[in-house]
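Slack export, channel: ligand-projects

TW: morning all. Re-posting the request from yesterday since it got buried. We need the structure predicted with the small molecule present, not the apo form. The ligand is magnesium ion; the SMILES is in the block with the sequence. No rush, but it would help planning for next week.
GE: picking it up
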Amino acid sequence: MPTEFLYGVEVVLNGLMAGVLYALVALGFVLIFKASGIFNYAQGVLALFAALTLVGIMEGQVPFAHLINAIFGTEIHHFGWHVPAVLAILLTAAVMVLLAWCVHNFVFRHLVGQEPIILFMATIGLAYFLEGVGDLMWGSDIKTLDVGLPQGASFWLEENTAFLGGEDFYGFFIDKLDMVATLVAALLVIALVLFSQYTKQGRAMRAVADDHQAALSVGISLNFIWVLVWSLAGFVALVAGIMWGAKSGVQFSLSLIALKALPVLMLGGFTSIPGAIVGGLIIGVGEKLFEFLIGAPYLGGATENWFAYVLALIFLVFRPQGLFGEKIIERV
Amino acid sequence: MLYREAGDFKTSYQDDSQTFPIKFDRYRYYAVLAIAFGVIPFLINDYWASSILVPFLIYSIAAIGLNILTGYCGQVSLGTGGFMAVGAYACYKLMTAFPDVSIAIHVVLAGGITALVGMAFGLPSLRIKGFYLAVATLAAQFFLVWLFNKVSWFYNYSASGQITAPDRFVLGYQVTGAETTAVAKYMICLVFLTVCAVIARNLTRGTLGRTWMSIRDMDIAAEIIGVNPLKAKLTAFGWSSFFIGIAGALFFAVYLGAVEVGEAFGIQKSFLVLFMIIIGGLGSIFGSFAGAAFMVLLPVVLKVIGVDLFGFPTDIVAHFQLVIVGGLIILFLVAEPHGLAQLWRVAKEKLRLWPFPY
Amino acid sequence: ELVIPDLSYRTGPYAAGGIPFSDGYQDYFTLLNERDGGIGGEPIRLIECETGYNTEKGVECYESTKGEGALVYQPLSTGITYQLIPKTEADGIPLHTMGYGRTSAANGAVFRNVFNYPANYWDGASVIVNYLLEENGGSLEGKSIALLYHNSAYGKEPIRTLEALSEIHGYDLSQLAVDHPGQEQKSQWLQIRRERPDYVVMWGWGVMNQVAVQEAANIGFPMENFIGNWWAGAEHDVTPAGAAADGYKSLNMNRINPDLPVFDDIREHVVDAGMAAGDGSNVGSVLYTRGMYAAMLAAEAIETAQEIHGVSAITPAMMRDGMEALEVTEATMEEWGAPGVGPAFEVTCADHGGSGMGIIQQWDAEAGQFVALTDYIESDSSVIDPLVEEDSMAYAAENGVEPGCN
Amino acid sequence: MKDTVDPYVTEDGRQIGGVLMEMKNITLRFGGVVAIKDISFDIREGEVRAIIGPNGAGKSSMLNVISGFYNPQEGEVFYKGEKRPPMRPYQVARLGIARTFQNIALFDGMSVLDNIMTGRLNHMKAGMWKQAIWKGAAEREETENREAVEKVIDFLEIQAIRKTPVGRLPYGLKKRVELARALSAEPSLLLLDEPMAGMNVEEKEDMSRFILDVNDEFGTTIALIEHDMGVVMDLSDRVVVMDYGKKIGDGTPDEVRNNQEVIDAYLGVSHD
Amino acid sequence: MLDATTETDTVLEVNNIEVIYNHVILVLKGVSLSVPKGGITALLGGNGAGKTTTLKAVSNLLHSERGEVTKGNIRYNGERIQDLGPEEVVKRGVIQVMEGRHCFEHLTVEENLLTGAYTRGDGRGAVSADLEMVYDYFPRLKERRGSQAGYTSGGEQQMVAIGRALMSRPETILLDEPSMGLAPQLVEQIFGIVKRLNEEQGVTFLLAEQNTNVALRFAHKGYILENGRVVMDGPAKDLLENPDVKEFYLGVSEEGRRSFRDVRSYRRRKRWLA
Ligand SMILES: Nc1ncnc2c1ncn2[C@@H]1O[C@H](COP(=O)(O)OP(=O)(O)OP(=O)(O)O)[C@@H](O)[C@H]1O
Ligand SMILES: Nc1ncnc2c1ncn2[C@@H]1O[C@H](COP(=O)(O)OP(=O)(O)OP(=O)(O)O)[C@@H](O)[C@H]1O
Ligand SMILES: [Mg+2]
Ligand SMILES: [Mg+2]
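GE: finished. pasting the full token output, ligand included:
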């Protein structure tokens, strides 16, 4: 088999895995958009906040230590304990639920029925706010997140595929972390799809998305539904934060992964949970393959940022609601 | 009755459709202009020019531009940064290619070039709507930034990839380059802003404005009524980009003097300008000013209060700044989702009725 | 009173790098105030201004502090530097861009107020190549080097130098751009894995560094063949990858030595006195040391200026003179309590760029610190000087500057 | 119908001309749903033509076909004697066809006046540049058109709400503004989709008055969908009855009223 | 079923409420209603009279439109309900069918109906029994159960909206303009169903309508609202006989129904507006 082809396959495989990671972030967007029509720009910051909190809890950091020290002239930093990963994840999830409650009650509850762009704006405000609070709470240095996920190449795969290409080929490279992410993402998606299609709350969630007023009128508690979806989105953000944080450390830039998720959303449709995954895969493969075949050799590389968007854009021209998005009902 | 409308009769439709139908408003408008042109230039110093006034004026132009597209025509765009970059690079190329032509002309031409680019990126808007379009405009943002970064022709093959504005003069006053005085910077931006604002106002109050607004409010109905959606959207993209391009050109040439595309015209810029128009008020020229003022002033005010007044560590202040800016945005939206302009309108309405509550 | 502004960034995407640098910069001045009562009897006033690594905020900081009599700016961002070069020239305030900013500012005949000693990017690139030459017995013929760079003006700086050097030394140079912020580098690293270059040189910043180190570990690239520049060689760049980062190398313009006597002074007079800019945990780290080193150079220049002009409360113009007459020797560094922290060098009007020397350090994951591998390595001035000359003259021509020393 | 194209004068003295628009064998499908099944009918110049039928019969879809919003899979549309090629809605509007909508489609963010002014888009010719300058051509044109619009405003008696944002208006007034918007285009064919839904008798009377006046004074041809049989019977010259996409009746109000199929499918009880 | 002549319990009481939108627009200027249990009460009045606002005030949906009740109070079974959340009001058995249908466009017809049962906690069995009941009342919906509500016709959507409300097993339904845009046959049918529900299940209705004729035919009691004030009220029969009502709301004069063609020749003004 020609090695060039095998490398192409490798690129595709890695693109798929990268796509799953994008999709993890996109999922959070979809959940909130579906249930409330809110385009939640803060999703990336939510992931950052979740990861920060997780690390903070694991390391026993004192929240707002810097602030407290600055005001009271004290020197406190750590509680001096370490929390095991599983427990810390649970605690963080609880924090995310609390956050969801706050976000809803202090912000979006007062914005019911506003135009989408206003809500979008509010989420940007929220992003700033959370970013500031996250920094104040846990400090803005880079933190190492280690919840025991495997990292590095899967040597097994590498060794067992090495024969394919003869001399020149090392075997396929796939990051173990990516494999875990894929598994987790698959589980998440299945669970979320089941939830939204077959449960009463899921149905209510979709109803709320269509018409707030009508949902109110049949007695659906918007407050409850929205706290619910924000909690879910917070949880998804936590998962995304763990996966990305394990790669790059937990730091401000984590919030920028939101930008990787947007083309995924466009492609998959803002309202479709499976769409997030499929969109992620297409974008992941597409951008990696483009960089491999055209970007790096001919265009000087670093095409990934825009390629994803342009790909999504071209796609949308033919299917304005994205691959799986709900058909836009146009009637007069 | 502090604010009167009654007794201010119009005798012709022309009077009725003027910008400030109420006398009181009209006088205030002249007063603002007089102060802007006649008083501030004598008071201004480097700090006020560079930190507050010049960015405010330039951002106002950009906000007006975006407001045309988003506020009037309803097409949410996150490509503002990219379009500003087009303006900046076009201006730079023009300035260096035709050093003898006045920079004022270059700036306008830069706006024109940006308009063309904007229209090209506006084409998909015919099919793509709402947030899908917003995200699609990010394609413009990222692509343009990448392009200006990659193709060295745009920065005249300079080693650093930065573009630096050479010294240029308008009417004998230096307006770009290090030796430019605060007054010159301020005045050239002010003139451009005034002209842009008047044009924007003219466009939005007439046929074109109504075409845009009809597309914004209900595009299907608009089309059935006889609005050609492609034309309406493209003109909106064109004019919007024109203003944004001018803002970008001034931002580069007059305000910063040197830019690197990724840093100066990154996605943050797109969000910032969007912020301005939403905080200020969508579909309102006044709102563009208010929003720009708010977003330029707020961080400075917070910094001054936090660091200089209370002496907090700068990082805590910076974090609090994020918290406060974020919090204020939310607070504003909750209090008045339609921005400062609407707040102002409601206040006027109340004043008009004052002292009666309804 | 000596006013020193500190344009720091403790927030935003690069905060992790900005915090220790700023801590070191400030703590040293605080030490001088506390221990020596300032410089030459004149107390130092620090003004910190947060830029968030944002150009516009940087300009605001500059404008708001310059009126206070600021002596020297250390903007710590290439973007802000470019803003400030014309402004500082116009205002006559010196600008010190230590190992960043506009490389050709080394030509003091053109950039009279800009100083970028002790070394610049082109020096850095050359030092790396020289180090590799040494490693390979003096020849890089047939070797391949991949440059992994941040796709920005900063990241593109070394390209010219490396290209010029590749012609001389016969190595193969491939370039891999990583777009900001650099969280996703799978493509680049798959390509590296495929092409198997002998060395990877990285011009990275921010999250890009952490991800690159992690990805290098993932594909099993030998860490000792992976060399970052001096903004890609701090503790926070390698710690997220854990033990896998062991052996990673980076360039440095100053030497890391946690046992410098000055640290004890800082701990005693500053940290324990509760006057530290940060929480004191950064003392001795790579960027803290660099920040402190920058402060030392500034303090030394102030002293020089005081000597030249015979006054203790110097003006920015005097400061410039001090910087241009700066002389750092082993003895001076000894005096600072930081022997061997940097190379010995002299600044002249023609040369604002310092010695151009650098060291290579290596990460020891177990000990959790960088260890110097080499002594100061020279850069190849025969290649760099013409480049500096060419670029600075182009600037001079474009901006109507009359080059010359007076 | 083919043979009755000669102009005639109605009892109340209105001039009915030849065929203005003719729909021939129109079929419209949405995926599996057949909204219109092979329907033909014509609209004559100057007449008030009603389309009635149960909900979901395809009435609105038929108007949408006429105004170009839907392109039928089969069939042809003749307008002013010529076959009309498939067109975008805005092109149709330029032919002089204006309409109102079943679910009010006003531009909520604009004032009443601006809404109505949009109706005159196709009468305003000043180019973009002239508008940017405003003084001169654009201003003159604005004033001229404003006068035309003011006439419509007077006619529909909505002077008082000129400057109100339409979003705040009550339903009935919105309908009236919509009518004003359509009228201001000075159309030759006016399509009204349930103009009186949600109105009480008094308001329906007002609306009827406007429709009749428009028809009478400007000679505008009107095609009208309405569920209030009283209104339909009183106002229209001829009525098309649709049911499940099919045409089940066509003729004068009296003929239709007594058509058994129509009674079964739609009226329930015979109305008088 | 309620006999209009006998006095019965008042289940819903609206006392002198004022409603303001956007802090400035005063819409209801002191409206009082009392809705008898098990009856059909019609709320009549022209456009913008404030019917919808009144209903929304009761079901507490004003909040999301930036409106608020600033004066007066609303009691349901004696309990003050104006401070409750809308879902609490639904739980107490009051549900509103909104003007203009407001279906969940992207949900299927059946899913729409099921959302109506959201507040119920009495198990799937009971819910599906009620679903069957709704299909029984509206056979047309059963045919279209699988299609997206956004694509159903106006009449079907109205049926969905009413059916959805029924799914919550309400005691009281606030029905806003059910006849709007419906074919005559369907109007009859829907009012027939309202009547049946009222008689068979004792559901109380408060009905806002423009179609005075039909409304008063089916209602027991009527209120006429003009400009945010109640201008007339009484048993439906009496209202039907009232000459003003006849003139302005029914379009009949002494000589029988007026033709819409004749309206051009005269314009009248309401006496109470003079
Ligand atoms: N865009 C569309 N996509 C799919 N189906 C549609 C679309 N528009 C209309 N339909 C279907 O076509 C049929 C006819 O709809 P139409 O709106 O024309 O009915 P109508 O006669 O106007 O009814 P009503 O009196 O309720 O307004 C309906 O079954 C409707 O569901
Ligand atoms: N959200 C709102 N903001 C401002 N004003 C409003 C709002 N909703 C309604 N109004 C105003 O309140 C008044 C009463 O409106 P309401 O909808 O209650 O009337 P209605 O009697 O139901 O009329 P219709 O028969 O047309 O439905 C109207 O004048 C309307 O303009
Ligand atoms: Mg219809
Ligand atoms: Mg109503």
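GE: first-pass observations. The interface with chain E takes residues 12, 30, 33, 52-57, 102-103, 168-173, 194, 197-206, 208-209, 212-213, 227-231, 234-235, 266-269, 271 of chain D (CB under 8 Å). Chain D has two domains: 1-96+187-272, 112-186.
TW: perfect, thank you
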